[in-house]
Amino acid sequence: MKGQLEAWENEYASPDPLWKGPPPQVGHCGRRVLELGCGNGKTLAAVARAELSVGLDHSFNALRRCPPGKASLVRGDVLGLPFQDGSFDTVLLFHVLEHLLEEERVAAVKEVIRVLGPGGLVSVRSFSVRDMRYGKGTEVEKDTFRRGNSIIYHYFEPDEVRSLMRPLEEIDLREVAVEKRYVKKAVRAELVATFRNGRP
Predict the structure, then answer these.
(1) Model confidence over 134-187: pLDDT tens digits?
(2) What is the rounded distance in angstroms from the CA atom of residue 93 to the CA atom of residue 77?
(3) Burial class of residue 34, CB neighbours in 10 A (0-12, 13-18, 19+)
């Protein structure tokens, strides 16, 4: 997050949308859903059926690109969420944690756990160390690289995700790898995981 806000504002000011294609598959989310790092609102369309859906992003330009709909939009910081304890049944962390430095990832997850209600779910998607883009840019921390646009990308091992999400209960964690059709031996690999808040 440090020093990246201007870079994200520039990315979302571009006329060419950053995230294309259909929204990702999102399972049952409960009544109150929070998406952190909602970007241009691509995933929010998949959770609009929730009684309360909130998208948070720190980029003003990103929020401006979200299509009008049922979701409430909030400009904010994942390191200090502007919500009360236990406010949500589900928190979506789709490609958010990888843009944070190590101490920021820890702080962000603490905030996620704080706003998650009893029995609530956290859905995580983050790039794996086996992703074809691993190593691109300047390494700023272990497995973390700053690209030419000043945005950082951290690549995860499964056990790192497990450790980061404690004390939440792991429901599912798997790597999803897709070969790129036009680039030989190139694989887009992400970790997809679900965790539950088992605390009363």
Answers:
(1) 999 999 999 999 998 899 999 999 999 999 999 999 999 999 998 876 666 789
(2) 13
(3) buried
CA distance 27 to 47: 9
CA distance from start to end of the chain: 32
Count of positions (residues) in the chain: 200
* Residue 197 confidence (pLDDT) above 90: yes
Q: Residue for token digits 């390494």?
A: 139
Angle of CA points 128, 103, 84, to nearest 5°:
100
Sheet containing 32-36: give its strands across: 72-75, 52-57, 32-36, 88-94, 116-127, 187-196, 169-179
Each residue's pLDDT tens digit, 101-128: 999 999 999 999 999 999 999 999 999 9
Q: Is 6:57 a contact under the CB 8 Å cutoff?
A: no
CA distance 41 to 96: 14
Can you give the pLDDT at residue 185? 74
CA distance 104 to 78: 9
